[in-house]
Amino acid sequence: MNFTSPQFAGFMLCVGIALLPAASIAQNQAATPTRSPGAKPSPSISTPKYTNEQLQEMASKLQDRIHNATDQVMGRIQKQESDLYIRFSYFDKPNRLDPNTYASQEDIAVWQQSLQQFRGVAETLQRLYADADQDLGNALVQQRINPALTEQIKNELLKTFPWERIRKKNQLIQEFIAEHEELLALYDKNWATRKPGPSPFEDQNLAATYQSLKEKITATGNQIEGEYKAMLQ
């Protein structure tokens, strides 16, 4: 999800331009004197309250304020997304799927702790997305944008979020964490029986469970990568 893209910049420009007609109408209405019934119309033409240059400047300032509000909210989300992806990349490596790359059960415990931290980051990110509506509204108000425009601007900004991909990615992240949790528990429980090589477990049922988990984690990891690539387009 790229909020510095030309498409988003174009949206910001359109917001400002779209407000110009309304502002022009408002200023012309304000500048037109009222007449009592039966009075003759004035031959003079009222001077508009704002020039076109002033209206353009007003629209530009509005765009800046919208951008500041968006940066405030999206900055938190993007920081959390970056942290989440880094933690995901730590686990999305072939050596995480090989029990012989762990030096001891204490090493496994360290990775289990890292996995819980990974889950915590994912849950925080989900809350940020869930609160985006309220947070954007508050940020726009703090930028002293006309309350009559705030709701409309907020709704248009929310439309730029790829919500389906966000929900899909969050779901896949939860599955990825759960699968790794099961794999690390398997390593810990069967630490004494593992052996070097591509088939570290002799027990057939255990070996089948291990192979199934490896395949699930690899497939889920590939899907997550795909969602991230799509969100960045």
Describe the structure.
- This protein is mainly alpha-helical and 233 residues long.
- The protein has one domain (6-26, 50-231).
- The chain is built from 7 helices and no strands.
- It has helices at 6-31, 52-91, 105-130, 132-142, 147-159, 163-189, 204-231.
- Mean pLDDT is 84; it is low at 3-10 and 17-33.
Lay out the secondary structure:
Blueprint: H1 6-31, H2 52-91, H3 105-130, H4 132-142, H5 147-159, H6 163-189, H7 204-231
Number of helices: 7
Determine the N-to-C terminus distance.
7 Å
Helix content: over 70%
What's the β-strand tally?
0
Summarize the structure.
This protein has 233 residues and is an all-alpha fold.
Q: What attributes does this structure have?
A:
73% helix; mainly alpha; 233 residues
